Each structure stands twice: as structure tokens, then as C-alpha cells.
Amino acid sequence: MSHFISPKLANDLIQAAYFIAALLFIIGLKRMSSPKGAKNGIVWAGVGMLIAGLITFLWPGMDNYILIIVAIFIGGVLAWWSGRVVPMTAMPQMVALYNGMGGGAAAAIACQELIRGTPFGMAEVVLAVIGAIIGAVSFSGSLVAFAKLQGLIKKSLRYRIQQYVNALLLAITVALGIWIMVLHGNPAVYIVVPFFVVALVFGILVTLPIGGADMPVVISLYNACTGLAVAFEGFALQNAAMIIAGMLVGAAGTLLTQLMAKAMNRSIANVLFSNFGEVAAAGGEISGSLKPIDAADAGTMMAYANKVIIVPGYGMAVAQAQHKVWELAQLLQSRDVTVKFAIHPVAGRMPGHMNVLLAEAGVPYDLISDLDEINPEFATTDVALVIGANDVVNPDARNKQDSPIYGMPILNADKARNVIVIKRGQGRGFSGIENALFYMDNTRMLYGDGQEAVTRLIQGIKFLE
After folding, report:
1. In 3D, which of 336, 354, 337 has the Cα closest to residue 345?
2. Using CB atoms within 10 A as the burial measure, which of 111, 182, 244, 422 is most buried?
3. How far is the C-alpha of 25 from the C-alpha of 227, rounded, in Å?
């Protein structure tokens, strides 16, 4: 297509289009920062990506148009299909998978350019190699995160010399990368292929030990890595769209990772290298007993309350109970009960998971509060209804210094006058830590599937009318 216009005009059109696309990316990202504008922000960013993709066909020397169009068509169809059929409960693993694809694409571009012997300068070679390492690790690590969230990998792989093995793999990857740099970007295939293979293996092995409870932080971290990989490859290829998009994703992912780690009161290094699950499982038992309640009594307690705060967790997502939860909230509101929703930053399996589920059910944004906003209100709350949440409401994080989660900011559900916990059974949470909240005098356990239990609550309240 670029053969039909002058190279200068094609370059001017490309740079102008990339500038417009960059503005749309920034506007879209800004609007995604709020639940009210998130959907609209996705459209803005999507239009920017469409412009950047289409204008690339004018790139000087571009060929293989049929192959590119076929690839875009296949990818588009798969994305549309998965967006339609994948349930909301599986969004975290789909995000992990798509994020990995971005890192893999950046690594594949670097691999192709290095094998082809693109005439890079030394700076471009260094950036391409760094981007390749980051992209490969993000790709394979994200696939492991997907497998863990999907239940394909049920146990974390840990062994005694694990950190030494990982350090050795990283050292080999860096050494091969330096070798490629020394060869000034024109290495033999027998150097490039092992370079990528070792980087991919490193990404797998560094992610396998991480427990499922840490997956939100891991997903955010690999999202940042993908953005950085794309930006580095953009610098190497002198592609402004890749640079801007990668930097935006990298910056947003880095900030989100820091916020998630802070919400867990842990450093990123602790998430990646601490074997948290093993420590948590050895945290000891709690004295006392679990006190069950039936749905009729729980419904009566909520129906005659002045204020109810609902705390959703991953159990709500698994049971797909968000619509029934909103029906319950509306029923309580019809009885002049003040109802609010409390969201912890790491509730669910990815950042914003609970917000998305509640928005899907039609819960107004002004009823949803984050940790800092809602915590002072628990002391004046008659009933805190915890649905499938565990570690994010565990008072040991505040009271027990030898707890593995001590210092982690939590939702102060235990300070409500009454606490009702909807839970499938008496098992521990995803992190393996026993929850002291469940044994407190003001806590009652309503056992059962989340959707079914909330349905029984609704029936119990309606019986009072």
C-alpha cells in the first residue's frame, strides 16, 4: 500500500496517526481509572489501537499484507468469541492470558529481528535484548498464572535449591543476551534460540512457586513487564506507537502492582520469593468454634437492621451470585435499610474483579466504597454480610503479630455489631490462613453456595412481609 504514495507522505501520515492514537490511549486510560468511565475509556483506547494498526500498512517496506490481514482476522475472531463465551468469573485468567500474549508478541518481534539481522545500532540491540528478556518472562509467567487461576496447576512447585536454580537461569539468559549484544545484533540462530528458551523457562520456574492468593499482584506485575517489553521494542524499531502504548501500560501496571503489594503489606520481592503459602499453612489453629445460623434468622437480622455493609469476595464470583446479592440489597433498601458495598483492593483474583462483577449486576457506583472510605463505618453497622471473602476480613492482620498477614490492611468487618459469613464449608482461604473472624462471638456462619445462600436470605426477608 505504501508503494502508491511517496515515502515522505507515508511517514508524515504514520507519525500523525500515531500522535492521534497516543492521545486516544491517554484519554482511554484516564477514563478507565473510574468505574463510571471505564467502558467508554475502553472504546477510546480501542479506536486509538485501530488507527495505529491500520496506518501501519503504510509503513515503508511493508509487505506480506495477506498474512497480516489473516492474522488480524484470526486474532479478532478469537478475541470476540472469548469475550462472548468466557464467564465473568474467568476474567482474571483471560486477562493473564491476553497479557501474556502481549509479552510474547514483543519477544517474538525481537527474535525475528535479531535472527533476520536487522541493522540495529548498539543502543537498539541493547533495548531489543532487554525487551526480549522481559517479554519472554512475561509470556511464560502469565501462562503459568493462567493455569493456576484456571485450576490446571493446583499446587505450587517448591524445592530446596529453587532460588539458586532461578538465579542460574537468569544468569544464563543475561549472558546469552550480552553475547548477542557483542555480536552487534547479528547472532547465529544457535545463540538466539537458547536465549529465548532459557528466558521462557525462567519465567515458568519463577512463577510456579507463587501461591494463588498472590496472583492479583503477579498479574499486575507481568502486565507492567509486558508494557516495558513493548516500549523497549518500540525504541529498537523506532516505532512511536509501540513506545507510547508500552510506556503507558508499563507505568499503569507498575503503579497498580505497588498499590496491590501495599494493600497486602508486602513487598514485590516478598510476593515473588517468600514461599508465602507454606508459611501461611503453618500458621496454627484458632481456639473457639464456628457458630452456624439458618437463613431465616439471618434474613430477620438484616431486615430489621439500620445499616448493612456487604463484603464480596471470590466466593461470590465463583457462585455467580452478584445478581442475587444486588436483589438482596434492593429488598433491604425497600425496607429503609442503608446498604453499602465494601471492596478490598485485593478481593478476587485480579484488581477490580469485584467492582466489575457488581457493575455487571447493576449496583450503582455510589454504593461501592473502597477500604479507606468504608472502614470507619463498620463500627456503626448493624450487620456485615461477608460473601466468599476470607483474608481481606481476617482481624489477625491487625491483632496477631505472628500472623503471616500481620500489617495487611483489612476491611474491619469484625467491628460490626453482627457479622454473617456466607461460606461453602469450613475450609481455609486461598492463602491457607485460618480466619479469626469466623470464631468471634458476633459472627455467625451461613453455609452453602453463595447464590443459593443469598436466595434463601431473600426468601427469609420476603417471608416477613
Report:
1. 354
2. 422
3. 13
